[in-house]
Amino acid sequence: MSLASWFRWNEPPNRISQRSPAEMVVETLMMELSWQMKQAEKQQRERENEYRRMKTGVDYGWLVSYPKHGYDISPGERLQLEDMCSKIHPSYCGPVILRFRQVVAEYEPEAQEVSRLFRSVLQEAAEKIKEEEEAKKLARQWNTKNRTSLSLTTFKSRSRISPFISDIKTISEDVERGTQPNRRVWSMPEFRNTK
């Protein structure tokens, strides 16, 4: 563990709580990338040692010295990956890490290929998040549409249940009350027989 990461994990709680969830997601995902790259380097060295041992019949692994700092991504690529990580919702952080580990275990990449796999996992997650947001949006629209149609259905059913409760005057109401119905207005002139 490097000194910087030791300080990061041993920061006072108030400093940790000042970070936003998005910053925490970016930091967590980038730490996972860094760890997977180191693991890939380690496995690559082990494969090389195994190959040498099989070829020569002697294990010289204890003689080989490896540089302290292995493969690292460029600053530009790091910024791009951090930007992609910032688009991952905190609830997806765990599933993204699990998917990334699954892909790394499946492909057993070399150190320089790990960031490419990480990028593909982030893109996959971003697409999934976008699809789910669109589905939620459609569901909200559908629910709003259904509420409107339900209110219309309720109105129609009320008028069917109580057809006599209305402001429209009918002849039968006038007969029941014993009053003369109002003269009806015809759209065509009345034809009367004249004698």
UniProtKB/TrEMBL annotation:
Example GO BP: retina development in camera-type eye
Superkingdom of this protein's organism: Eukaryota
InterPro entries: RD3
Keywords: Coiled coil
Coiled-coil spans in chain: 30-57
Matches recorded under PANTHER family: PROTEIN RD3 (PTHR28489:SF1), RENTINAL DEGENERATION 3-LIKE (PTHR28489)
Protein name: RD3 protein
Source species of the chain: Loxia curvirostra
Highest classification ranks of the organism: Eukaryota, Metazoa, Chordata, Craniata, Vertebrata
Gene from which the chain derives: Rd3
